[in-house]
Amino acid sequence: MARCIVTRKLPFDALERLRAAHDVEVWRGAMPPAPDELRELAAGAEGILSMLTDAIDRELIDACPDLRAVANLAVGTDNIDVEYARSRGIAVGNTPGVLTETSADLAFALLLAVARRIVESAESVRRGEWWTWEPAGWLGYDVHGATLGIVGPGKIGEAVARRGAGFGMRVLRTGREPGPGRVPLGELLAESDFVSLHCPLTPETRGLIDEGALMTMKQSAFLINTARGEVVDTEALRRALESGWIAGAGLDVTDPEPLPGYHPLLGAPNLTVVPHIGSASHATRGRMAAMAVDNLLAGLAGEPMPSPID
Ligand code: GLV
Ligand code: GLV
C-alpha cells in the first residue's frame, strides 16, 4: 500500500479502486488547497491525484521526496512542472481523448451563445423585460456560412472544426504543416468570423492573443477561448470589447482564474463567461476520474501509465 493524496473530493466510482489498493487521503475543502496546505498534505505521499487548480511545481515536488506518480484530472498539464518531475523520475499522466467531444460541445455552445446573444436575451426575459417582438430586436450574427478559425493543432480543435463543418461553416486552421484550410495565424485572424482557441498553454502561446491579434480580427468577429486563460491578454481583450475592435467573446477560461465578480473584464460588453466547464458532463468527468485512477495505479506499480505525458 502506498500513501496517495487526492486534492479534491472526487464523487466517482473510480476512487473506490484507488482506496482498495492504497492508503488514500482526500482534501475535504470546498476550495483547492493553498500551496502551503498542499505541501503539508502531500509530504510523504507517493502518489498525487491532482486537479488543474493545483500547482505541482518544483517547490511542491521538492517537498515530496517519496513522490513517484502524479495523475492530473485534466488534459492540460500546464499546472505541472513536467520536466522537473521527469528529472526526478516521477511519472506524470493526464486524461486526453475522453474529454475531446465534450469540450468541443462546450466550445460550440459558447460560439452559438455569443453569436445569437442567448445569455443576455434570456437574462432580459427573467428580468421581465420581454415587452414585445421587435423587428430589429436582439440581432446577432449567423453561424452558418461564416468562417471558423481554429487555433491549435489538437484533437479538440479538430472536433470543433467538424461541428463547424456540420453547421455549413468554412473552416480555417493554424498549423505548421501545410494542409487543407491551413493558414498562418495572421491570415486566420483577419479572415475568421469566429476564432476558437484550442492550443495548450506553453511559453509560445502565452499572450498569443494580444492587442495586435485582436486588432487584426474583424470588427464583426468573435473570440472563443476554451483553452487556457493566459493564451489571451485580458486587459487587451477588455479594451477590444469596449472599443469595438471585435464583436464579442465567449470564455470558458480566464486570466486570472477564477475571475472575481468585481474584475474590470466583466464590465465589458458582448462577453459571456462560464466557469471552466469544458469537460463538465456527468459521463466525461466519470471517465476522466477512471483514467486518472488508472494512471496513478500503474505509476505506483512501477508500470507505464496508460496515458503518460509525452
Ligand atoms: C481542462 O481544462 C483540462 O485541461 O482538462
Ligand atoms: C420568427 O419566429 C418568425 O416567424 O419570423
- Quaternary structure type: single chain
Tell me, what is the CATH class of the largest domain?
Answer: Alpha Beta
Strands across the major sheet, in which order?
A: 7-6-8-9-10-11
Spans of 5+ residues with little confidence (pLDDT < 50)? Answer: none
Describe the 3D structure.
The protein has helices spanning 14-21, 35-42, 58-62, 82-87, 100-115, 118-126, 155-166, 185-191, 211-216, 234-243, 282-300; strands spanning 3-6, 23-26, 47-50, 69-72, 91-93, 147-151, 170-173, 194-197, 222-225, 248-251, 271-273. By secondary structure, the chain is an alpha/beta fold. The chain folds into two domains: 3-97 and 282-300, NAD(P)-binding Rossmann-like Domain (Rossmann fold, 3-Layer(aba) Sandwich), CATH 3.40.50.720; 100-273, NAD(P)-binding Rossmann-like Domain (Rossmann fold). It has a six-stranded parallel β-sheet with strand order 7-6-8-9-10-11, with helices on both faces. A five-stranded parallel β-sheet has the order 2-1-3-4-5. It is elongated. The mean pLDDT is 97. Residues 52, 74-76, 99, 278-279 line the site of one glyoxylic acid.
